[in-house]
Amino acid sequence: MPQWLNWPLVRQLTGSDPLGRGTAARSRRTEDLRARTEQADEVVRSVCPYCAVGCGQQVFVRDGEITQIEGDPDSPISRGRLCPKGSASRELVTSPGRQTKIRYRRPHGTDWEDLDLDTALDMIADRVLATRDATWQRTDDQGRTLHRTMGIASLGGATLDNEENYLMKKLYTALGAIQVENQARI
């Protein structure tokens, strides 16, 4: 059979697909392609991390690596749809530019250095406690009891669930912070 008989236009004009949207448009390479979702070992349900809508996602995993993220058709919020940012959220995990180490630049420094997790957490805790101590208000100008700090505030993220917000509110209240807010509004 001559090779030109296998061209898409010839298949479209002579076959059962005159609009060229089915078999006429398929090549040998197209037939060999498989969806990344078919190769997954497991599918994990998740929530898109970008905004307050909370669209459901299906995360397809193979050999411990994310291969694809798609909208979850069982989600009552998004019904299987994702916006462009949600559709590209796989890049949050798989991008070669993603930072996987704790990076720190000292005050007035010009170079970044890597820190281990324990050191970074100790630095954060020391700074939170120092800020709390430096800005602690036991009483106001009229002698009324306050027991608060205005030096620590929290702005929660849009994808925190109720339980996470509850725990964060408890933490900041225990520190004496009264400026606790969440931007999860539509």
UniProtKB/TrEMBL annotation:
Entry cofactors: [4Fe-4S] cluster
GO cellular component assignments: cell envelope
Domain of life: Bacteria
Pfam families reported for this sequence: Molybdop_Fe4S4
GO biological process, one term: anaerobic respiration
GO molecular function annotations of the record: 4 iron, 4 sulfur cluster binding; electron transfer activity; formate dehydrogenase (NAD+) activity; molybdenum ion binding
Domain 4Fe-4S Mo/W bis-MGD-type: 41-97
Keywords recorded for this protein, A-Z: 4Fe-4S, Iron, Iron-sulfur, Metal-binding, Oxidoreductase
Subcellular location: Cell envelope
InterPro entries: Mopterin_OxRdtase_4Fe-4S_dom (IPR006963)
Enzyme Commission number(s) from the entry: 1.17.1.9
Record carries keyword 4Fe-4S: yes
Recorded family membership: Belongs to the prokaryotic molybdopterin-containing oxidoreductase family.
PANTHER family assigned to the protein according to its UniProt record, in alphabetical order: FORMATE DEHYDROGENASE-O MAJOR SUBUNIT, TUNGSTEN-CONTAINING FORMYLMETHANOFURAN DEHYDROGENASE 2 SUBUNIT B
Protein name, per record: Formate dehydrogenase major subunit
Species, as recorded: Saccharopolyspora gloriosae
Native organism taxonomy: Bacteria, Bacillati, Actinomycetota, Actinomycetes, Pseudonocardiales
